[in-house]
């Protein structure tokens, strides 16, 4: 199934989820990284010794907050989203590839997978993504994983919506999240985009399937590839999604 938001509707991504909306979350991640490495808040704005790989970078909106602190590379499976990220992060090396299988042949201090990890819809997918992260980590390196929802705390069904304005249009985004069956490890979402250009209204729809796994499985997947794993509660974002961060450290 083609996810239209990351292909023919990718041009809407900077409108409905602009980079500035990631400022608080990015600061939390940056502070955690600095703390884990024993760095201080007085680090230089750009530290060439720290290399960060972002798997499933999408439009590069979260990544854009890290490029002034780290040397960055990025991977995504969508050519359209990579083009958006390249425009926003011109000094980042970008790679077209699947986070479950890509191997770049080099390692990094930090590997991040933001909400793209939601699209790991089976346990095998999730473990493959974790193995990719582990394969790209230096000894002592960190991996950060941020699923939107956990099976333990998920509450459905629900609807979230917001409207963003540009110079020539308004875009309203509506997401309906279904209530999964008790035994399901996925959750279904329906996206509706209402694009109003000076009274000319266009409606587009999209449908997404996301993984829904218990906290214990996330921790186990990290531990099974030899990493020390912990769960960190962070600030949730609009609609009550997010706020989940799994941190793995590769032994030195």
- Which outline best applies? globular
Q: What order do the SSEs take from the amino end to the carboxyl end, as H and E?
A: HHEEHEEHEEEEEHEE
Query: How many runs of DSSP E, i.e. beta strands?
Result: 11
Average pLDDT number: 93
Structural class: alpha/beta
Percentage beta strand: 25-35%
Can you list the strand order of the major beta sheet? Answer: 3-2-1-4-5-11-10
Task: For the record, give the distance between the C-alpha atoms at the N and C termini, rounded to a whole number.
Answer: 41 Å
Helix count from the secondary structure assignment: 5
How many strands, which pairing sense, and closed or not: the largest β-sheet?
7 strands, mixed
What value does the Rg take, in angstroms? Answer: 18 Å
What's the layout of helices and strands?
Elements: H1 13-16, H2 23-36, E1 51-55, E2 71-76, H3 79-88, E3 93-96, E4 108-113, H4 123-135, E5 137-145, E6 158-165, E7 170-177, E8 186-197, E9 200-211, H5 215-224, E10 228-236, E11 242-249
Parallel strand pairs: 1-2, 1-4, 2-3, 4-5
Antiparallel strand pairs: 5-11, 6-7, 7-8, 8-9, 10-11
Helix pairs in contact: 4-5
